Each structure stands twice: as C-alpha cells, then as structure tokens.
Amino acid sequence: MTIDPDKVDVAATREMQRKVQRHLHDHWKSYAFQGGLMIVVGILAILAPFVATLASTLFFGWLLIFGGIVGAISAFRANGAPGFFSSILLAILAVVLGAVIIYDPLAGAVTLTWALAAFFLLSGIFNLSIASALRASTGRFWLIVISGVVDIVLAAYLIFGLPGTAVWAVGLFLGISFLTSGFGLLFSALDARNNPPPRL
After folding, report:
1. How far is CA 19 from CA 7, 30, 73, 82, 94, in A?
2. How far apart are CA 188 and CA 181, in angstroms?
3. Which of 38, 39, 76, 109 could form a disulfide with 166 if both were Cys (CB 3.0 to 4.6 A apart)?
4. What is the pLDDT of residues 148-190, one digit of tens each?
5. d(CA 131, CA 124)
6. Cα–Cα distance between 30 and 40 in angstroms, integer?
7. Which residue range forms the structural domain that includes residue 78?
8. Is residue 154 part of a domain?
9. Three-state SS for 74?
C-alpha cells in the first residue's frame, strides 16, 4: 500500500489551519486588545507625525546604545573567543552611532527612514503570509491583505522620497501602518470569536 504524498500534504495543511483557527479563537481577547492598542497608537502618530518621528528616532538611538552595551558585555565574557576584537569594535560603533542619533535626532531620521522602509517591507510580506494562513478561519482576511499591501507601498514611498520625506513621513507612515494593522487584527479576532473552528 502506497501513501499519496499530495494527500499527506493536504492533510497536514488542513491540520495546521485548524490549529491556527483554534489558537485565534481561544485567544481572541488578547488579539483584540492588541489590535485596539495599535489603533490608538496609530491615531496619535498620525495626529502628531513630527513628534512620532522624533520619538522613533530617539528610541532607535537608545536601542543602538543598549545593544552596543550588551554586545560589549557579551564579548568581554567570551574573552579569547574568535572574533573578540570585531565584536568589541561593532559594539563601540553601535554605541557611538546611537549617541550621534540621540544628539541630533533630525539627522538620524534619514537613517531611521531606511530602517523603517525595511521594516515596512518585511511587515507587508509577513502580513500577506498571515492573511494566507487565516483565510480559512475568517472572511475578513482581506483586511490583513490590505494592511500588507499598504506596508509595501509605504516602504517604496519612503525610499523614493528621501531625504525630504524623512522628517514627517516616518511618524505619519508609522501611524498608518499601526492603524491598518490594528484594524485588521481587531476585526479578525472578533470574527474568530464568532466562528469557532470545528473540533475533531
């Protein structure tokens, strides 16, 4: 007796979809809260894009400093390991770059714009894959598809609009991204609450 690998793949895919459906249904409150919080953050960022850009830039600077300090501590703990001096150099570079961004956050906004464009691109791709996984459990998966497409369009606009868009676009686009992702997550969670997957 031979087993058809296509049938096995279909069965495995259906089982995975059921697990995703069950998880989303069982934890819909957490996802709904997360979606609502993202909507609030998105609205605030859209209302004050310059403040959101400044806050994001400062956060990025402190993140670099923190990462550099942690990297240096890890390197010293592994003293004598291969790549020790490279790790120390990289940690120092991260701390210096973070300090420069904090000292002049407007100049650091251009660097953050590139980083945010990469984030939007990856977020868009991730949202499209999530929408594909949730397609069987909710009819509102298209909201997450829209969110993914919006993120990809925002990434392209950020890149092609440099350097003029760096000051205001980072905060505004971050707000739009949070808003669309929040609505997509909120409505998907509410839909999953009302449509439990069948139990085997």
Report:
1. 18, 17, 41, 43, 41
2. 11
3. 109
4. 888 888 888 888 887 777 777 778 878 888 888 888 878 878 8
5. 11
6. 16
7. 26-194
8. yes
9. helix
